[in-house]
Design brief:
By secondary structure, this protein is of the alpha+beta class. The chain is built from 3 helices and 13 strands; from the N terminus they run H-H-E-E-E-E-E-E-E-H-E-E-E-E-E-E. The strands form 4 sheets. A 6-stranded mixed β-sheet has the order 6-7-5-4-10-11, covered by helices on one side. The protein has a 3-stranded antiparallel β-sheet with strand order 1-9-8, with helices on one face. A two-stranded antiparallel ribbon has the order 2-3.
C-alpha cells in the first residue's frame, strides 16, 4: 500500500489543528486547576514564584487564625471583667443599704475612763514617780559642830565648815562609780559617766558636787537639809547604792536599793465578766512577766 501524499497546504492545516488541540488541552487544564502555570516545565520562574507566594499565603492564614483566637480570648476576658464590675456594683449597693439601715442593737453599757499619765501603747501602767531615801544627820568640823549643808567642803580642815573626815573609797550609784581621790583636787567625768572627786591638797569641792554627780547618774534630785542627805531615784530606774571605805558613812548613807513608786495601774486587776457562756477574765497590769500585761 502506497503512502498518503499530503500537499503542503494540507500539512500546514494539520499542524494548525494539532497546535489548536494542544492549546485547547492547555486551556482546559488551566480552567480545571485555576492556574496558568501548573508545572515547572510550563514556566520555571513563574511556577516557583507562585509556589513561594502560596506558602506565604498559608503562613498569613495561620497568623490570621492565631489573631482570631487571641481576639476571642480578649472578648472572653472582657466579658469576665464586666461580670466582676456588675458584682462589685451589687456589693456596693448592698453595703449602702446596710449603712442606711437602722442599727440593729441598743447600747447595753458604757465605760468612761480618765487618762493615765505616762501610759503608752507599750506600757499601760503609766509613768512611775520618783522616790527618795534620806541618810542620817552629819555634822561639820567647826569648833562647835553643826549640821552640814551643800556648801560643806569635802576636804576636812580644822574648825571649818568641812566634813569631820575626808571621804575615801568608791561610791557606786546605779552601776556608775564616784571615786574620792587624793591624787587630784578637781572634779572629772570620764566618757562612761564615772566621776572622780578630788580630795587632794587645795580641793574646794563641796557636798553639792557630790549631789550633782549623783543626780547626773540617776536623773533625780538630791538635797541636804538639817544635816541629812536626801537622794532622789529619778523616774528612769531604781536607786542602787553601794560603796567602799567611808564613801557612804561620811554622808550618813547606807548601801541598798530604793525603788520608784510604780505607775498608777501597776499591780491592779481588771476583771472582765463572762459573756456568751464563756468564763470571766482577769487582767493584771505589770511588767509582762508572771502572767501580767
Amino acid at each position: 500500500m502506497s503512502g498518503i501524499v499530503l500537499s503542503a497546504s494540507v500539512r500546514q492545516n494539520l499542524l494548525s489543528l494539532q497546535n489548536t488541540a494542544d492549546l485547547l488541552s492547555t486551556t482546559q487544564n488551566r480552567l480545571s486547576t485555576g492556574k496558568k502555570v501548573n508545572t515547572a516545565l510550563d514556566n520555571p520562574t513563574n511556577f516557583f514564584t507562585a509556589q513561594s507566594l502560596d506558602n506565604r499565603s498559608g503562613d498569613i492564614n495561620n497568623l490570621l487564625d492565631g489573631i482570631g483566637n487571641g481576639v476571642q480570648v480578649l472578648q472572653a476576658a472582657n466579658t469576665g471583667i464586666t461580670s466582676l464590675q456588675k458584682l462589685v456594683d451589687s456589693a456596693k449597693s448592698v453595703a449602702n443599704q446596710a449603712l442606711q439601715a437602722a442599727v440593729g442593737y441598743s447600747t447595753k453599757s458604757s465605760v468612761t475612763t480618765t487618762a493615765v499619765a505616762g501610759a503608752t501603747a507599750a506600757d499601760l501602767r503609766g509613768a512611775p514617780t520618783a522616790a527618795t531615801v534620806a541618810g542620817t544627820v552629819v555634822n561639820n568640823n567647826l569648833g562647835t559642830p553643826v549640821a552640814i549643808t551643800s556648801a560643806t567642803k569635802l576636804l576636812t580642815a580644822a574648825t571649818s565648815d568641812s566634813l569631820a573626815a575626808t571621804p575615801t573609797g568608791v561610791l557606786t550609784v546605779n552601776g556608775k562609780t564616784i571615786t574620792f581621790s587624793t591624787a587630784q583636787s578637781t572634779k572629772t567625768t570620764d566618757a562612761s559617766g564615772n566621776v572622780t572627786l578630788g580630795t587632794g591638797t587645795g580641793s574646794t569641792l563641796a557636798v553639792s558636787d557630790l549631789l550633782s554627780s549623783i543626780d547626773s547618774i540617776t536623773g533625780g534630785t538630791s538635797s541636804v537639809a538639817a544635816g541629812a542627805v536626801t537622794l532622789g531615784t529619778g523616774v528612769a530606774s531604781d536607786l542602787v547604792l553601794s560603796g567602799t571605805l567611808t564613801s557612804l558613812s561620811a554622808f550618813g548613807l547606807t548601801a541598798g536599793t530604793t525603788t520608784r513608786t510604780a505607775g498608777p495601774l501597776s499591780g491592779l486587776n481588771l476583771t472582765i465578766g463572762a459573756t456568751g457562756g464563756g468564763t470571766a477574765t482577769n487582767v493584771t497590769f505589770g511588767d509582762g512577766t508572771g502572767g501580767t500585761v
